[in-house]
Amino acid sequence: MPATGIKIINNGVDDNENGINYYTYVGSNDRFDTNVLPFSSSYVTWDKVSNNAIQKIQASTSNQDVAKISDMGSYDWSNSFVTVSSLKEGTATIKVNSTYNEKAARSIKINSLNKPTYAVSEKEITLKNDATVENRVYSTISNLGNLNKASVKWTSSNTSVLNVKNDTSSKPVLEAGKPGTATLTCTFTDLVAKNNKSVNPTKINVNVTVKGNADIENKVITDKNTLINDGDIIKATKEGDEILIRVEEYGKEAGYKCDSSNTDVCEVSKADSQIYSFLLKKKSNGTSTITIETISGKKITFTYDSISGNDEQQSISKKNKQLKKPKIKSVKIKKNTMYVKIRKKPSKYNANGFEVKIKRNGKTIIKSKWKKKKLKIVNLKKKCRYDIMIRTYKGKKKSKWTIVKKKVK
Questions:
Q1: Average of pLDDT values for 361-366?
Q2: pLDDT the model gives residue 156
Q3: In whole angstroms, what is the distance from residue 23 CA to residue 201 CA?
């Protein structure tokens, strides 16, 4: 029993001999129960309506503008309560004492703090396995006010798939492991959540998928819609020429970083107001290796070869030999069989063959290589959506997918 003869009870904080140091948010109404012991008839009054002995208390505030007494009452011989409303940011001291024994007193320091607003920049992320990426996701904290403070902590549900470094920074470093999925959790803790047992920290989850390098769908294209594959050679003829390249991943802009190994030959800069695109500018004759890193951590490397104007025809000839994306001529369904026709044979696309992937309701059911213009898929299921995905390949080089969607009724 406290030496003063009164105890304050609140599930958010423990009472002690010095009273309560209580953290709460502006706009909150917090109830504190009081308990005066030992029982003495001099501490109570008789309530004629309920026919009970009632303990009566008094309460006051040191700062009416910050925290006011909004309700107060007694409900039996040893228990009463006081409700405090927090009005604005600041501190106030609430004094509570027994009406009939002012020595039975306790103080409550109310720390009325702004409730912060928390956010995380991404809801879903795709990463290349074994990639380490910075600035891929970040957290923001706003509306802290002058008195509140908040911290952040990043954790992974599966560290074999995703590991987190700089985990107390607003911008963590993500280390992708083996292919799979993991939940990246950002936990925000402010002074109220830290000091008030009834308030939980705020958690925001990000779904992370780690894929193998070959399974990440991306492309680099020029402003003339020329596709640049990993290992390609692109040409620039005149000094000062600029080639705009755009980087996409799963159909969304995704260029994170672009570097030139020889800036005397090719200078890289950001395109105006296009944060995911880059400009390659010819400085002199020679070659430079251009390395692009996407937001998933995947790297695409190609050669920038600056030539004189007389060699321009050679550049065009080289371009015509690039691997091309296939075109699908027709897709027909007869009974439970699908017939697919590709417009040209592989050699017409400068390719060795086709890679075919068939998905049913989003799940891959067929994945193989093919050299003919025609193929058929049997045993189709009714009321299913089929994605027919075909691309060309030549050695390790692959074109982007050509995709046709069909629904079987």
A1: 88
A2: 97
A3: 14
